[in-house]
Design goal:
By secondary structure, the protein is α/β, with parallel strands linked by helices. It has 17 helices and six strands. Helix content is about 60%, strand content about 5%. It has a six-stranded parallel sheet. The longest helix has about 35 residues. The chain is elongated and about 85 Å long. The structure holds NADP nicotinamide-adenine-dinucleotide phosphate.
Length: about 475
């Protein structure tokens, strides 16, 4: 068996492990082991690459792996759950950069091999029908990787507060983007047209193409803001996957093609699901503006209405003697890290014969599946977490809807206020419950930065305070009933 055979077998096994790992990621119960399985797959793919004939520079490669591993490990260990989206975005950008550099390297290697050998300037027809198709996967890898790289860095900056979270606008925005896209196509065709003349001419055009693609990533993501950021991250994720897959084509590397396609397909599916959850079309996310121009009216008469407060002891009575309580977790629960206390409260209530369920909105928190992960960490049984479509019809029978650190996902403006940035987003029907209790620290708005009429509803009572502190008081009071 040659070393090429061994590395191909390693790639095949790695690809199977990626698929198996991804399958296990679909449930919080199996997700950890799924991650581990996919990680083993990646180690195998790396090992397979190491033994490929012609491999060298091992010292440099090991140094590069160490440089990537140490900060990656430390960042992943230290990151707070609430900062996960920007972390994902940063890692995604690194994937895009890898695909870009690998494609660039392959393209330059190919050009170098051609330099001076073709001799004559090819006709436009030859350039388009022979040269361009041969370098097409490499050029596409450079473009997609570059867009993903800078786009993800901007998304990271926005979520980290380094760049304005608001959608940035400037004159002739769309025509400028169209010009940049045309520039990329022009540079690709020109690079193919001048390939045979001189390596350096072609190289110049490929650098132009690369710089324009990097610029396009920035120009595309800067105008997006507000609640569209999670969708953008998901789009960029699929872009990185595609970049890796086409790079795999260019290098004839099966493992890269499979892994890239998996990431691309998973990212695309997630994008579609999130667009559905927010009732947004992908075109509107990418070409429209969200959370920017129309801020929506303040909650009707919010300034002259008042919010009614409630004490933890009263809440405990309401819930302790209820038949059915639906808990709505949101971003604030994650900030307060109060997931274990919610589970404790849930168990106390169940012991008293109260039926407790959790309503999970697909974009609650700051990343897809945020609430599922958070509650799984506290060992809340998975069957108690119900998706929006399943739980919404149950609110009418609920005696209490307990909203903990959630805001936008229960904001009725999404149904009624056409000027609101969240208009059209399906929400949890908390307002249909007989009583509504809201735990939040004060009058802070949610991610979309808008007022919420629900907090002024006649059925709503506010239990002000940090979610952890409020839940501690609540559990103590329920124990004392
Ligand atoms: P939200 O609308 O952001 O509201 C969170 C609320 O929690 C705030 O009003 C805040 O009010 C309260 N809060 C913050 N810290 C708290 C603490 N320590 N204790 C108690 N309350 C606290 O959250 P959401 O309802 O979960 O909605 C998620 C939003 O994020 C949506 O707009 C969604 O589109 C967006 N988004 C989602 C994702 C995703 O993939 N899931 C990613 C990015 C963005 P106070 O300041 O008054 O306490």
């Amino acid at each position: 068996m040659t070393s090429t055979n061994i590395s191909e077998a390693a790639y095949l096994l790695a690809s199977l492990l990626f698929i198996f790992g991804l399958k296990r990621l679909s449930s919080p119960r199996t997700a950890r082991s799924g991650n581990l399985v996919a990680g083993i797959g990646m180690a195998l793919a790396l090992g397979g690459t190491f033994i490929l004939p012609g491999m060298g520079n091992f010292g440099w490669i090991i140094l590069a792996i160490a440089i990537g591993t140490v900060p990656g490990w430390l960042l992943a260990k230290r990151v707070k759950m609430t900062a996960m989206p920007q972390m994902v975005s940063l890692f995604n950008g690194m994937g895009g950069a890898c695909a870009m550099f690998i494609s660039l390297g392959e393209e330059l290697k190919w050009l170098n091999g051609l330099d001076g050998r073709v001799g004559l300037l090819p006709s436009l027809r030859e350039a388009l029908t022979q040269m361009l198709p041969r370098s097409f996967p490499m050029l596409l890898g450079i473009v997609l990787g570059a867009i993903s790289f800078t786009g993800s860095l901007i998304a990271f900056g926005k979520l980290q507060g380094l760049v304005s979270e608001k959608p940035l606008r400037w004159p002739l925005q769309k025509p400028i983007n169209v010009l940049v896209v045309l520039g990329i196509i022009g540079a690709a065709v020109t690079s193919a047209g001048v390939i045979s003349v001189n390596y350096h001419y072609a190289l110049t055009w490929i650098i132009v193409l690369n710089v324009l693609a990097l610029l396009l990533g920035v120009l595309q993501v800067l105008p997006i803001g507000g609640a569209d950021m999670p969708v953008v991250i998901s789009v960029l994720n699929s872009c990185t996957g595609l970049a890796a897959a086409v790079t795999g084509f260019a290098m004839k590397n099966m493992s890269m093609i499979i892994a890239g396609t998996l990431v691309g397909a998973a990212g695309s599916l997630l994008t579609v699901l999130m667009c559905k959850a927010m009732n947004r079309s992908l075109a509107k996310v990418i070409f429209g503006s969200f959370g920017g121009t129309a801020q929506g009216r303040a909650a009707a008469g919010a300034s002259d209405k008042s919010q009614r407060e409630i004490a933890a002891s009263e809440c405990a009575i309401m819930m302790g003697y209820a038949r059915k309580v639906i808990i709505i977790p949101g971003y604030g629960l994650a900030v307060a890290q109060a997931q274990h206390l919610v589970h404790e409260l849930d168990e106390l209530l169940e012991k008293r014969g109260v039926e407790v369920k959790y309503a999970i909105h697909p974009v609650a928190g700051r990343m897809p599946g945020h609430m599922n992960v958070l509650l799984a960490e506290a060992d809340v049984p998975y069957p108690k977490l119900l998706d929006m479509e399943e739980i919404n019809p149950e609110f009418e029978q609920a005696d209490v809807a307990l909203i903990i650190g959630a805001n936008d996902v229960v904001n009725p403006a999404a149904r009624t206020d056409a000027a609101s940035p969240i208009y059209g987003m399906p929400i949890l029907n908390a307002d249909k419950a007989k009583n509504i209790i809201v735990i939040k620290r004060g009058r802070g708005t949610g991610f979309a930065g808008i007022e919420n009429d629900l907090f002024y509803n006649a059925k709503t009572r506010m239990l002000f305070g940090d979610a952890k502190k409020a839940l501690q008081e609540l559990t103590t009071e329920v124990k004392a009933l």
